[in-house]
Amino acid sequence: MATYKAEIKTVPTGSSYTVTVESGSISTAQQEIEHLYDPIYIRNLRQVSSGSSSSGSGDVEGYVWLIGLLFVIWLLANYWMFIVPIGAIILILAIVNWVKDW
User: Fold this and answer.
1) Which terminus of the chain is less hemmed in, N or C, by CB atoms within 10 Å?
2) How far is CA 102 from CA 88, 95, 96, 97, in A?
3) Where are the domains of the chain?
4) Strand, helix or coil for residue 24
């Protein structure tokens, strides 16, 4: 689905404003705007972004998360003898703090 923007006017004395809808086509976007807002007019209806799931920024973000996850796994595998005792101490302190507040 794609994102569409349009300028609409809903009352004769008011000013126009911009609305955004998600739709599969421009005609469906116009129908959706007419159904939701019952406008006097719709102007400058345009597609502002495509809804494709294979965008470049989404792919890069996925790779960054994957690399970060692999780095954390590498840290845990190589430095577990430090991480486990420190994690246990933090867990004990958190439990003591929770019991104290309870």
Assistant:
1) C
2) 21, 10, 10, 9
3) 2-49, 56-101
4) coil
For the stretch 30-38, contacts whose Cβ atoms lie closer than 8 Å and that sit 24 or more positions apart, written own/partner, are: 30/6, 33/6, 33/8, 37/8, 37/10, 38/10
Q: Is 79 helix (H, G, I), strand (E, B) or coil?
A: coil
* Structure-derived torsion over alpha carbons of residues 48, 53, 57, 60, reported in degrees to the nearest 10: 180
Residue whose entry in the numeric block shows the structure tokens 């867990």:
91
pTM: 0.49
pLDDT in tens, 89-101: 999 999 999 998 8
Instruction: Return the pLDDT at 51.
Output: 65
Q: Please, are residues 2 and 52 in contact by the beta-carbon 8 Å criterion?
A: no
